[in-house]
Design brief:
Blueprint lengths: L1 E5 L1 H8 L8 H10 L4 E5 L9 H10 L4 E5 L3 H10 L3 E4 L19 H13 L3 E6 L3 H10 L3 E5 L1 H5 L2 H20 L3 E5 L16 E6 L1 H10 L1 H12 L1
Parallel strand pairs: 1-2, 1-8, 2-3, 3-4, 4-5, 5-6, 6-7, 7-8
Helix pairs in contact: 2-3, 4-5, 9-10
Protein name: Pyridoxine 5'-phosphate synthase
Catalytic activity: 3-amino-2-oxopropyl phosphate + 1-deoxy-D-xylulose 5-phosphate = pyridoxine 5'-phosphate + phosphate + 2 H2O + H(+)
Pathway: Cofactor biosynthesis; pyridoxine 5'-phosphate biosynthesis; pyridoxine 5'-phosphate from D-erythrose 4-phosphate: step 5/5
């Protein structure tokens, strides 16, 4: 299983002082050097962590894969085409939320989604949709032309015991179904060093995206060690 590292919260820490350090690009390069196969960043509409100059610098520096998480807005669509990340991941976004609270409401926005994705796909950028682990959402993602889906693991991360086992089963079934449609499957949100081990056994999930837990761990042991520790668990 591959690991993509979200470096948003390096920017959160930097922005607390509104200065220059720590540098998200330096963090991205350390993560790559330590075994991450991709760097994830979320350019939010309110620019609360990653900012436009960060995205431009990351595009120049990242040599593995740059995954731009973004809302479905005209501004973000234009930025994606101008920046040319290898991958964009569409996520829902609310200004009042602390972090993304659920999967993209694909059924509600389907007609707009198809039109929105057209110029991005035309530019040769791969498309991922951050969705709930539900068959209907997967069907619509495939119909919209997504290359892969990122299954939202937030509910799994918030539960324990039998309830968590039920959520894991839903994720497993969704991954199998998505793969059967020809979609590649990744997973993310709320995954950490304590709850991620069962994902090793879901062979259809080829990659996990981890941000907050890994950056929090890095505050104690450094990014290289935090990345290697996570890779040791998932492989």
């Amino acid at each position: 299983m591959r690991l993509a590292v979200n470096i948003d919260h390096i920017a959160t820490l930097r922005n607390a002082r509104n200065e220059h350090n720590p540098d998200p690009v330096a963090a991205a390069l350390l993560a790559e050097k330590s075994g991450a196969i991709g760097i994830v960043c979320h350019l939010r509409e309110d620019r609360r962590h990653i900012r436009d100059h960060d995205l431009a610098a990351l595009r120049k520096a990242v040599t593995t894969k740059l995954d731009l998480e973004m809302a479905m807005t005209d501004e973000m669509g234009a930025i994606a085409v101008a920046t040319m990340p290898e991958l964009i991941t569409l996520v829902p976004e609310k200004r009042e939320e602390l972090t993304t609270e659920g999967g993209f409401a694909i059924e509600r926005h389907f007609n707009r989604l198809v039109d929105f994705l057209e110029p991005i796909k035309g530019a040769g950028i791969e498309i991922s949709l951050f969705i709930e682990a539900e068959q209907r959402a997967i069907d619509l993602a495939e119909k919209a032309g997504a290359d892969l889906v990122e299954l939202h693991t937030g509910a799994y991360a918030l539960k324990t015991g039998e309830e968590q086992a039920i959520e894991l089963k839903k994720i497993r079934q969704a991954a199998v179904y998505a793969k059967s449609l020809g979609l590649r499957v990744v997973a993310g949100h709320g995954l950490n060093y304590e709850n991620i081990a069962p994902f090793r056994d879901i062979e259809e999930i080829e990659e996990v995206s981890i941000g907050h837990a890994l950056i929090a761990r890095a505050a104690f042991v450094g990014i290289p060690a935090a990345v290697r520790e996570m890779l040791d668990i998932i492989n």
